[in-house]
Amino acid sequence: LVRSDPFRLDAMRRLGVPESRILRAGPEPMLFRQVLVPQRRLNLKYVGARLNDMYDRLTATLRRDRGPLRHAGRLVYLDRRTAPSNTGANRFIINGPEVTEALAGRGAVSVYLEDYNLVEKSEVLSGADTVITAIGANLVNVALSDNVRRVILIATPLWGHFVHYWTSVLKMRHPHIDIVVFDDCEVEDNGLS
Q1: Which of 47, 49, 76, 162 could form a disulfide with 128 if both were Cys (CB 3.0 to 4.6 A apart)?
Q2: Is-contact 151 133, C-beta < 8 A?
Q3: Residue 26 and residue 3: Cα distance in Å, rounded?
Q4: Which long-range contacts (CB under 8 A, 24 or more apart) does 27-35 make?
Q5: pLDDT tens per residue across span 8-39
Q6: Rounded to an integer, what distance in angstroms lies between the CA atom of residue 31 and that of residue 24?
């Protein structure tokens, strides 16, 4: 069961899921007899091997299909737009423009991953020296990339379980990675996220 966006559909195809087995969630309600829902607070030691295998298979297809790395050795900031159709409309950095400007002054290249398909995201992130991002969906793309040296997560202290989950996943995918959590920040909750 996936949302009908190109990123998720491409990932399912790359993992070999037949088109007939992909259920697309839309605005219409769906009725199921039984649903298993993965928990973010899951025990990664229990599901880690299967999760890592899925990431390995998906990363291998991206590695095979991608072109030259776009920002190798660079500081990459995964910025967010606040358009209503984007997750950034629900969760965003209050002083986002100032953060973007400050990071640009330090040589960071700002990237909006929603502008790229799955293969291009791998080209953008693989080989980056440091990736800075607010905690969230962008981290799936970091987990699918190769040779990222450091990740700086921007997260409110209230999101401790997300920080734990993504730190565990990123360490599983990239054992050498240096993860820095910047949680000395305030987040305005608009009630939507």
Answers
A1: 76
A2: yes
A3: 7
A4: 30/1
A5: 788 888 888 888 887 777 777 777 776 655 55
A6: 13
